[in-house]
Design goal:
Helix content is 0%, strand content 39%. The protein contains no helices and ten strands. It has a single domain, classed as Rieske Iron-sulfur Protein. Strand 3 and strand 4 form a beta hairpin. The chain has 111 residues and is mainly β.
Length: 111
C-alpha cells in the first residue's frame, strides 16, 4: 500500500466532500460525522463529479440525477446508477488525510 497525503482533515467539510487529485486520479474525500472516506470522484451513471454532491447517512449523492452511493462500499443505493464506484483506503495521521489509490477496497477498477 502506498498512502499519499491528500489534504488536512480541516479541509474536508463536515457532511460534504472535497475533490482532490491523487496520482492522476480524481478522488472525492468525504466526511460523514467523524469518519472519512475516499472514492472515485466520478458518478458511474453520468460521469460527473461526486464531490459536488451532498453527504449524509454514509452516502454521497450525485448532484446531477440524484443517485446515491454508499461511502463504505461504493455501491449505488438509489437509481439511476447501477454500477459501483471505486473506494480506497484512508488513514488519518495527526491532522492529515492519506489515501491509497493503488488499492481498492471493493475491487472496482477506477475508470
Amino acid at each position: 500500500m502506498t498512502f499519499v497525503r491528500v489534504c488536512s482533515l480541516d479541509e474536508v467539510p463536515a457532511d460534504e466532500a472535497l475533490g482532490v487529485l491523487v496520482d492522476g486520479l480524481e478522488v472525492a474525500v468525504a466526511r460523514d460525522g467523524d469518519e472519512v472516506f475516499a472514492l472515485q470522484d466520478l458518478c458511474s451513471h453520468a460521469a460527473v463529479s461526486l464531490s459536488e454532491g451532498d453527504v449524509a447517512n454514509c452516502t454521497i449523492e450525485c448532484w446531477l440525477h440524484g443517485s446515491t452511493f454508499d461511502l463504505r462500499t461504493g455501491k449505488p443505493t438509489t437509481f439511476p446508477a447501477t454500477e459501483p464506484v471505486a473506494t480506497f483506503p484512508v488513514e488519518i495521521r495527526d491532522t492529515d488525510v492519506y489515501v491509497d489509490v493503488e488499492t481498492t477496497l471493493n475491487g472496482v477498477t477506477p475508470s
